[in-house]
TrEMBL record:
NCBIfam families: PRK00094.1-2 (NF000940), PRK00094.1-4 (NF000942). It catalyses: sn-glycerol 3-phosphate + NAD(+) = dihydroxyacetone phosphate + NADH + H(+); sn-glycerol 3-phosphate + NADP(+) = dihydroxyacetone phosphate + NADPH + H(+). HAMAP family: NAD_Glyc3P_dehydrog. One of its GO terms (cellular component) is cytosol. This is Glycerol-3-phosphate dehydrogenase [NAD(P)+]. It comes from Marivita hallyeonensis. The active site is at K183. Pathway: Membrane lipid metabolism; glycerophospholipid metabolism.
Amino acid sequence: MIGVVGAGAFGTALAIALSKTGKDIVLWARSDRQAHEMAELRCNRVYLPDAPFPDGLRVTSDLNEVTAATTLLLAVPLQHLRGVVDLLSPGDTPLVACCKGIELASGKGPTGIIADTRRDQTAAVLTGPSFAADIAIGRPTALTLACADDTASASLQSTLTTPSLRLYRTTDTIGAELGGALKNVMAIACGAVMGAGLGDSARAATLTRGFAEMQRIGSVFGARPETLSGLSGLGDLVLTCTSELSRNYRFGLSLGRREAFDPKTTVEGAATAKAMLQIARDANLDVPITKTVTALIDGDTQIPEAIAELMQRPLKEE
């Protein structure tokens, strides 16, 4: 049995995709009301109303039922991951984090958070260019599965691959996590550029220099260049910086347009930008786009001033 903890869009989509293969899947929702509604309607009315549940997909609000699974997918926002892991009973079940970001309090990514309290359990992260709606309706999607233990990773890869969901594995958890986290920061920047009406050329420049910034950060913390150039880095960056289906990109649009944004919508890149900026300062790293995004979020600068500052940086080789 595979348990999916978190009945948001991504968790629900994964549960649907895996259930279509005939696997025994149980999806955990935090509230009794949400679990009952999804079980009755056989869909997630809030996030994926057009993706009906396969017959074999079960929904529960009883965490004990989910933790009996042989594999657990943790599809909760990164800033809530630690609290969810703390609720789980200790065991030997592999824990696969399906979230992206850097924890504000600790500066850690998903596998680091899991290791803090579940050091003896296999920790992995599933990341890459994907929208929940595409996965739920069976559109072809390729993701990265990162796990330090390659034997465990190969087993998870086989378990979680479906006819429409292809997984590539790597032992470079640092690179996979940094790619998944930092691309959200760059998506906010690209959204702000487009929201301010600066055009596609400016977005292309922002995306490209954002990727250079990701590579610079990755090299300091031990990420492999090929990981950041793969699905979990460049692939996810391109998708997130060019589509309004991305929450981070839409948040950036609102910043550029000086419009309000729904406070209930999770924007992981906002927290990641602040966490990464502090990490970069401690490491004496130059991260101009991350710094600018943080200033925009905090209201310490506006688009015209931010653009002027970036354009007036010292000239250098690419």
